[in-house]
Amino acid sequence: MxxxxxxxxxxxxxxxxxxxxxxxxxxxxxxxxANIDPLMEFxxxxxxxxxxxxxxxxxxxxxxxxxxxxxxxxxTVGICAAIKHKYDVDTVPHVLCGGFTKEETEYLLVDCHxxxxxxxxxxxxxxxxxxxxxxxxxxxxxxxxxxxxxxQNLNRGKYLHDVIESDNCANFCIGVAGYPExxxxxxxxxxxxxxxxxxxxxxxxxVVTQMFFDxxxxxxxVDAAKSMGINIPIIPGIKPIAVKKHLQLLPQVFRIDIPExxxxxxxxxxxxxxxxxxxxxxxxxQSKELLAAxxxxxxxxxxxxxxxxxxxxxxxx
Length: 317
Ligand code: FAD
Hints:
This protein is an alpha/beta fold. The chain has helices at residues 3-9, 29-36, 76-87, 102-114, 144-155, 189-202, 215-227, 246-254, 260-267, 272-292, 307-316; strands spanning 15-20, 46-49, 55-61, 64-70, 90-96, 119-123, 173-178, 206-211, 234-238, 297-301.
């Protein structure tokens, strides 16, 4: 079922959902299930599964370092199918521009369609670690908007190269990313919002936001988006702080601000166990305000162990 249908069916009741990162290759899918199991009692209508782009590794060969391309994590579509089958829940694979040709994207989308996956998140992805700026793969897309267009073409039965008489078109519901504190490369929030509007005009059905810690920024973002004619659900993404290092890491990677009161509380913790508890309590308060405002879904970034999300969901759902 489409995310937009889940939202409609909930009849203004806020839904609970979360995002997981597939375990690195060499790990077991049981590790993933162990993190999903405790969250299923809160009845998420959907679970997002992230995608990691390819990476370079250097292998020693005849005294020289040989550069190889590798993927550290298994394919997202397979993981989505496994979760969907095990828990009977909708899963949302994240589909990236970076690291994929348009043809590879088409194969992946066709697999999704055959597996009964009705939703996809269309994302550009980030630059590779050795690159300063994002570079499209040869034969790939430069911006998420182009990916949205490709998915919408498929929804109309329009494949890249073949003329196919399709009597069973895909009908993907498409999510895109939004940034209440603007995307790090955007020259201004207003310009970034214009880019978001382009993704919506290309056929995006809903937005999931980057993490934020100040609800005011989310509310202002939603208002600004509405005033630009963006009238699709904007789902807030919540990340509970879990370790002290997040105070540096999250602003550095995602260019988001952390409020002074949260910084102070985290700084005064003597262990990461205490930090995790502070993160839980902060996220509960943050979520309560968003719930009261009637957001369609509270979407949590789990990034590994899910016991903190479980503690938050217990208070709210
Ligand atoms: P875009 O919408 O393409 O925007 C990228 C930048 O280009 C923005 O600054 C935008 O303003 C600008 N821009 C857009 N169009 C144009 C244009 N025509 N001309 C000039 N500038 C333009 N990353 C992963 O690798 N894997 C994941 O699973 C993943 N999941 C995510 C989930 C969510 C909810 C979010 C918020 C992010 C996620 N990301 C993920 C990170 C995302 O890939 C990065 O933030 C990436 O840098 C931007 O992706 P985007 O889809 O927002 O790109």
